[in-house]
Amino acid sequence: MSRIAFIGLGNMGAPMAANLLKAGHALRVFDLTPAAVDAAVAAGGVAATSAIDAVVDADIVISMLPASRHVEGLYLDASSGLLPHIPTHALVIDCSTIAPATARKVAEAAAKHGLAMIDAPVSGGTAGAAAGTLTFIVGGEATALERARPILANMGKNIFHVGSSGAGQVAKLCNNMALGVIMAVTGEALALGVSHGLDAKVLSQMMAVSTARSWATEVCNPWPGVLENAPASRGYTGGFGNDLMLKDLGLAAEAAMSVGASIPLGELARNLYAMNSRAGHGGLDFSSVVKLVAKDV
């Protein structure tokens, strides 16, 4: 089994690390939140005193951080960056969702230190992270992916190699842009039906076996009470935060501008999630965007 440094134990990173521990790997873990580290230690991990301490003697380095600036800081900071401290035999896997340009920048810097690195953002949400059924969307060299594949398989069931460094981020942003649009319009459709006296659960069940079928109707329904385990049924807590979706839609807009692509629905969705954030719902699950059209949910 591998010696793994796992950095970033948030809503996604914590269950991913737990699945690696269940698979028998030795993990040294680090996070800025002591409680998150304590939980990983209780599951069998070893606490590191710093990110640099975590990578000592590591075979694999995995990071799961919120944004581009955090990833750049972790690996490239002039005083505390990890790259000079990672053993040259180690493989670096960044699972964060960040700007494609940042992924390429960090991978190029890693290569100068003799390190192989892939960007492997995930899809599947916190439920998929806990169940070990995530989809990994990988950018980087095929040889590096083959080294990573047994590790990724302990955390997910689908692995797609979509291209060179940064390509994983582009594909993830495409996926999340579509998801953001679909969630928003699903909420609108349910709100319209309810305003006409329809039962949201029955309407959702019909849509889930009809042409409006989607992850938003079947797994993360935005209407409270439709799906017992969906964030909407527990006050929109947990899940994938509105402000994280807003971040990803902003990255999608940047990616579109960099190549002159047109994403009118993606831009509209970005504005909707920005409005939801300004309404005070930034920390809620992104399905709370339905609150913009249904004030009583």
Using brief descriptors, characterize the structure shown.
three-stranded mixed β-sheet, N-(1-d-carboxylethyl)-l-norvaline Dehydrogenase, domain 2, alpha/beta, 12 helices, 2 domains, six-stranded parallel β-sheet, 9 strands, 297 residues, Rossmann fold
In short:
With 297 residues, the chain is α/β, with parallel strands linked by helices.
Question: Could you explain the architecture of this structure?
Answer:
The protein folds into two domains: 3-164, NAD(P)-binding Rossmann-like Domain (Rossmann fold, 3-Layer(aba) Sandwich), CATH 3.40.50; 170-292, N-(1-d-carboxylethyl)-l-norvaline Dehydrogenase, domain 2, CATH 1.10.1040. The chain is 48% helix and 13% strand. It has twelve helices and nine strands. It has helices at 13-22, 34-42, 51-54, 68-76, 100-112, 125-131, 142-153, 167-195, 200-208, 215-218, 242-259, 264-281; strands at residues 3-7, 26-30, 46-47, 60-63, 91-94, 116-119, 122-123, 134-139, 156-163. The strands form two sheets. It has a six-stranded parallel β-sheet with strand order 3-2-1-4-5-6, sandwiched between helices. The longest helix is centred in the middle third of the chain and has 29 residues, at 167-195. The mean pLDDT is 97.
